[in-house]
Amino acid sequence: MSTNNGMASDAVPPQIRIRQETAGVPLTPSRDDLVAGLHARGVCYLTPSPSGDERSLTDAELIAGVAAAEDARLRFALAGLFLVRPALAAVAVDIERTLSGAARDELRKQYVAAVYLQRLWRTHLRLQFGETELIPEHFTAEMGLPGPEQMHGELGLRLLCERSPYNDWSSYQQVIDLLDSQPCASGDIIPLHAADPSHTGRQ
């Protein structure tokens, strides 16, 4: 996986910065805060396990913080978060408008990857987490990528991965594998209604 540099201070959405500065807390969440936030939302394969004293994050803070994280494995978990909690897609689209630089690029990348992965592994994810709504397509046109209907998302995902000097295809496969074998029970995930039950994707 890649190891991009950390985010610039202006990558944190202004409304979050103001609230944090007023509260006298750090401008950016710690890695432990982000991991705990992912665990709380059903992505629990990252370590260390939360100890209970981590700062509670809103959905917006979590998504922005993970997108700007220095740890590549943590950033790739953002795609897993959208797969487990497709309802957070709307939060991600709103947050994207407030980010800049590397954090904005990373959020777009992981969002689009999740869109492709969900179509590609539709049947597998349905068996693991139950029926969930499709993640709406965003950012593909701006990024010059094909729609997720082409080859059930595989074409777009391959083209996205080709833009990286690292083996991102393997990293996304690992996200699927880790979600499949993570220690928290899939029953903890709240199923949502499927928007397209006829689209089976990869087995």
Describe it for me?
It contains nine helices and no strands. The protein is mostly helical. It has one domain (9-183).
Question: Could you outline the blueprint of secondary structure elements for this entry?
Answer:
Elements lengths: L13 H10 L7 H10 L18 H9 L4 H13 L4 H8 L4 H20 L1 H8 L24 H9 L5 H14 L22
Shape: globular
Mean pLDDT: 84
Helical coverage, percent range: 40-55%
How many separate helices? 9
Task: Assign the structural class, choosing from mainly alpha, mainly beta, alpha/beta, alpha+beta, or little secondary structure.
Answer: mainly alpha
Q: What is the radius of gyration?
A: 16 Å
Largest beta sheet, briefly?
A: none
Number of discrete domains: 1
* Intertermini distance: 25 Å
Low-confidence stretches are: 1-10, 20-26, 186-201
- SSE ordering: HHHHHHHHH
Number-wise, the strands total 0
- The percent range for strand residues is under 5%
